[in-house]
Amino acid sequence: MVSTGAKHSIANVFMCMLNVGDEVVIFSPYWVSYAEIIKLAGGVPVLIEGTLENNFKATAEQLEEAMTDRTKAVIYSSPCNPTGSVFSAEELQAIADVVLKREDVFVIADEIYELINFTGAHASIGAFPGMFERTITVNGFSKGYAMTGWRVGYICAPLTIAKACEKMQGQFTSGGTGIAQRAALAAIAGDQGPSQEMEAAYLKRRDLVLGLLRDIPGIKTHVPEGAFYFFPDVSAFFGKQVEGRVIADADALCLYILEEANVSLVTGAAFGAPNCVRLSYAASEEELIEALKRMKAVLAKLA
Ligand SMILES: Cc1ncc(COP(=O)(O)O)c(C=O)c1O
Question: Domain 194-300: which CATH class?
């Protein structure tokens, strides 16, 4: 079912699926909108946390511990916004095994970064035995085809859920924009070369930024395997100061870097990880080199 962007697809799903008080387990760090949409739909977000040490990937064991009688669904993105981490087929199988112990729990697999995956092996949990009927796969054109403004996203879901979403969407927007869907069709049915070139360009930038970040004392990062983000731990700077300005947390650090270096980052607090910041490398190599140079200079002033 096609909607006005993947964000709209996810909103439709939670609006249709959740009753007040239903719980949704979110693999954290997570894309900001998940928790807000769940709350808008009357649900309760339950976070399970991945750490830098395990590439920000919460485990199937954590999922099992977090599930209760109220659990209705589980959601993750892979490749992940904000961490760039990718679940392997083995990791997804372990998640599927936990979900399949229950008869009434769905997985919402947000695969919008599918085409920006440097591992060369994108795995979809909906393709695993027993999971097709349990999975709502989310995808869209904003990332892999750089068509963010066209607003086309979609789900592949069990028919009951797709039909409920269609009813819901029919009242809110009538449907996705026709001309945008035509453009999306041309993108997905046409030559995939441009998307592959884009993925290769992102990999080159990933390696460029990785080298530059590792050159900044105090920054700790893992190696993202997809999407176009770094999610470094910046807690080494907390409590430091310059000219009486104290960097209390990631919010304060982002504001400092914005004001002093004109470089915009997003605080990890927004994604459930307050020791981190998110850096997007969807920018030119020249801009990235300049941005990292400025960041390094202003961070060096903190003592
Ligand atoms: C993980 C994830 N899911 C969904 C979306 C929404 O994409 P769309 O532009 O299709 O609404 C984004 C956009 O940032 C995202 O990062």
Answer: alpha beta
